[in-house]
Automatic annotation (TrEMBL):
<dbReference type="InterPro" id="IPR000182">
    <property type="entry name" value="GNAT_dom"/>
</dbReference>
<dbReference type="InterPro" id="IPR050276">
    <property type="entry name" value="MshD_Acetyltransferase"/>
</dbReference>
<protein>
    <submittedName>
        <fullName>GNAT family N-acetyltransferase</fullName>
    </submittedName>
</protein>
<dbReference type="Pfam" id="PF00583">
    <property type="entry name" value="Acetyltransf_1"/>
</dbReference>
<dbReference type="InterPro" id="IPR016181">
    <property type="entry name" value="Acyl_CoA_acyltransferase"/>
</dbReference>
<feature type="domain" description="N-acetyltransferase">
    <location>
        <begin position="3"/>
        <end position="157"/>
    </location>
</feature>
Length: 157
C-alpha cells in the first residue's frame, strides 16, 4: 500500500479529536467507550489548543489523499509524563490500516523531527496488553516505569 507521511496542517488539527478516540486501546471482547469520553480533562490535554505551544508537532499518514493516521507530541502532564522538557507522544491509525508498517514509519518520522528540533527524548504510555508496545520497543523505546496496567516508555533521540 502506498502512503505519504507529512506534517499536519493547522486546518487539520481538529482531526486530532478523532484520532484521540482511535488511540484508545480497546482489548478484544470489550465494548468501546462512547465517543464523548474524549471530552474528559485527562484526554483533552492531548488535543486542547493544539498548536499553541512551540512543542506541539503533528504528522499524518495519507492514503489516496485520505488521512488514515496521526502521530503528535506535546509537553503535557499526561500518563506518560517524564519531565517538562520531554514531549509525550500519541499515535493512532484507523483499524483497517494497522499492521502494515504505517505506524512504525510515522513514529520514525516523528523521532527524526523531534531530534531535528533539539529534543533529547520522547515518552509515551501504553497499556501492557496493547500489541503496539512491541513496535515501540523495536524502534527504541525502553520501559522506565510501570503500574498495574501500563508501561511508561522513553526513547532517547
Amino acid at each position: 500500500m502506498e502512503y505519504t507521511i507529512r506534517e499536519m496542517t493547522v486546518m487539520e488539527y481538529p482531526l486530532l479529536n478523532e484520532f484521540l478516540y482511535e488511540a484508545i486501546f480497546i482489548p478484544d471482547g470489550i465494548k468501546p467507550p462512547p465517543k464523548n469520553i474524549i471530552a474528559s480533562p485527562e484526554l483533552q490535554i492531548y488535543v486542547d489548543r493544539f498548536g499553541a505551544s512551540k512543542a506541539d508537532f503533528a504528522l499524518v499518514a495519507e492514503v489516496e489523499q485520505k488521512i488514515v493516521g496521526a502521530v503528535w507530541v506535546r509537553i503535557i502532564h499526561d500518563y506518560g509524563h517524564i519531565d517538562d522538557e520531554t514531549p509525550s507522544l500519541a499515535i493512532s491509525l484507523y483499524k483497517e490500516y494497522r499492521g502494515q508498517g504505517i505506524g512504525t514509519d510515522m513514529m520514525k518520522e516523528m523521532l527524526s523531527l523531534l531530534k531535528t528540533h533539539g529534543y533529547k527524548r520522547v515518552s509515551l504510555s501504553v497499556q501492557k496488553a496493547n500489541y503496539a508496545a512491541e513496535m515501540y520497543r523495536k524502534i527504541g523505546f525502553d520501559i522506565v516505569r510501570e503500574n498495574e496496567e501500563e508501561w511508561i516508555m522513553v526513547c532517547n533521540l
